[in-house]
Structures are given as structure tokens and as C-alpha cells.
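Here is an idea for our session: we take a single protein and study its fold together. Start from the sequence, derive the C-alpha cells from it, and show both lines together. Once you have written the record down, we can walk along the chain together:
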Amino acid sequence: MSGPIRQVRLHKSRRSILRIGAAMAGGAVLGPAAGAAAMESSPPGEPDWTKSTGSGVVDLPYGKPSEFEKDVIRRNVPWLTATPESSVSFTPLQSLDGIITPNGLFFERYHAGRADIDPRQHRLMIHGLIERPLILTMDDIMRFPSVSRIHFIECPANGGMEWREAQLNSLQFTHGMLSCAEWTGVKLSTLLDEAGLKKEAKWVMVEGADAARMNRSLPLEKCLDDCLVVYGQNGEALRPEQGYPLRLLVPGWEGNVSVKWLRRIKVGDEPWFSREETSKYTELMPDGKARGFTWVNEAKSVITSPCPEKPVAAPGLYEVRGLAWSGHGKVKAVDVSFDGGVNWHSARLQEPVLSKALTRFTIPWRWDGQPALLGSRAVDETGYVQPTIADLRKVRGTNPIYHNNSIQTWQIKPDGKVFDVQLG
């Protein structure tokens, strides 16, 4: 069975360097004829794009990716919901580097379609068990002290289609309801302090301005801890699909509570038990009872390369790469298995390792062309260890839709193709 390697010695001769480079690419060292042909179209040759000037700065006032990256897009599963207005698009995790998701690839989730709002007319109302009811314009909100933080957002249904069996042979569709950004805005605690909380206050209801009037109940303790009312994402204004001009961000908790197009905050002494926390966003247990208010996205990880969209080219040296995250704080460690969980090896966490943000991990692996079962498990700073799907089913059965944080296994076939599988 193929396994990880700890160190690679690079010899200084040119022939050795070429051989190592070819092995990394899954190819062979070029012969004289092939080498001569290759030299005509690569350094030190002169390809066509070096022979004329390119477009000027006025030709592209708002930047966009290279045309050669046109397949790196959000995708959806048409049969997942009845209409696109109540559906989701998935982030192409297999094609991304680092921990920040570009705004144009950040996954979407709608309940009544995307709201397009004029920021000059948008208002945020704060009322209920407070001393000074407020109606704030966007200009008002912009004047409050601001903060910028990096956090992930994950839909609780991420991986939900895998509860009963492995259904979709795609990293994008099994884990793509996950993205991470730098968010800029105002602490929710700052706004609540400005309004003045009454002593009976214990819960907060947040509501969006979309046609669904999406609303959720949140405990006041969380609201005063790390919640943000944000207007900026990755250095620019929120995009309409992410709640422009204003959204709530609840770090580490299921994405549904980070209400977009935020228009109302009501303070009360008990939860509201809305549609979204009774008939929806609860988990049906084997005994017929439903778990409610299961907000936290527990520690989770996934290998992003190799994966079904990025198969293995040929035997040789590879860097296995992936992402890990936890709604409880920082990722402490990630282990990787190449044999379906029989043996585990410590991966390297790449900086920065931030609280409630995506963390990159890597480990070198020399594939020998034999079948392999790759998986990763995250451990967060609380000591929580990512479970197997079998462990989750023992507790929750197969009825839930939400909070599947089980270990993802990729099966590597001898031809290098990668498949989504589940181990009993």
C-alpha cells in the first residue's frame, strides 16, 4: 500500500531535477526529439503572447479571471429543490487555493430568490426589550467603529445528501456549501449597546428583507460574543447574493442564522420558534423526536486534492491538500489516512490558523499505483475529533439532513480516478 513520505532529497544535477519534475507531473523525462519540439513553444522559445502588446487598463475596469479558468464556477444540482429561487449553488473547492473564497465563487443559498436592494432606501430597525428603539440607515451604520475578521460560512445541509449513502461523486457537490471570507462591519454588541438592553433580554430575533422574510432566534449571549453586522466582504461591498447591503455574520454557527439582507433585530425574553427552527433546520432522530437549535458546525475536514474532479495522473510524488474548520474555534490538528483509517499520519497545518476559519493542511504522498482510500480527520482546540459516518449514524440514524461532519473517504483506483465512498 502506498503511503506518506517525510522528506525528499533533491539532487543538484540537471538530469535529476528533470526526472523529479516529471515524476511530480506524472510523466516521463523528454527524449531529444520531444525535447526539441517543446523548446519551440516554451522557454527559451517565444510563444505568440510575447510578440505583441496586451490589452490596456481601460479595457477591464472590473477584473475577471483568465479565460482559461472559465470552468471554475459555482454549480448547482437541479433536482435538489423545486425551484432555483429556493436552491443553492456550490463553491468549487477543488479549484481554490488558500483559505479565502473569491466573492464570485462564494456559495449561494436562497429561500425566495436574491433580493436586489437600493442601499439608500435600506433600513435596519432595532426594537423589543431595549431602552432606545433605533432605525438606522446604511450611512448611520458606517459611522460605528468597524472590525474585519476572517470566518467561514457553512450551510448545515453541507454533506446532507450523504447521510444514507454516497450519492454524488464530486467534492464540489459533497462539500461545496462552504466558503470563507474576510468580513468587515460592526459588532452586533455595539449596536445593541447603542440601543440599550433591558434586564429581561435573553434572545434576539434577526430578520432579512428578502421575500421569505427569513428569520431566526439567537441567544443573547452569542450575539454579545462575536456576531457581526457586515457590509464588506474581501475588501469590497457585499454582493447581492451575499446580502447586499447588510447581513448578519454568526461565526461558527450554521449558515442559515447568518441572515442576509438584514432589516430587523428584535430583542425578547424567549425564542420565537419560527418556521426555520421548527419544521426546518431541525434534525429528525431515530426515536421520532427532532433536535432543535443545533447551531454549531462541529469540526470537519476534507481532502481537496486528489478528489473526483482532480484525479491522480500517474504513480509518483504528490502533495495531498485539504481544508479543515471548526465552529468551536481553531483547528488543532489534522490526520490523514491512505488505507481507509487503519493508519493515520499527521498533516502540516499551514498558517494562518484562525478561529472559526478555514485552515489548509498538506502532507506528501508517494502513490505506487495501487488502490488507496484517502481520508482526513480534524481535531479542534476543544479536543473534539471528527467522527466517521458510522459513528454519526449510531446516534442520529439516517433521517437527518443537517450537520453531517463525518470523515470523507476518497477511493483511488489503479487508473488514478477518484470516487466518493463510505466505509462501514
Observations:
- The longest strand covers residues 178-187.
- Residues 377 and 386 are 5 Å apart (CA to CA).
- The chain has two domains: 84-291, 300-421.
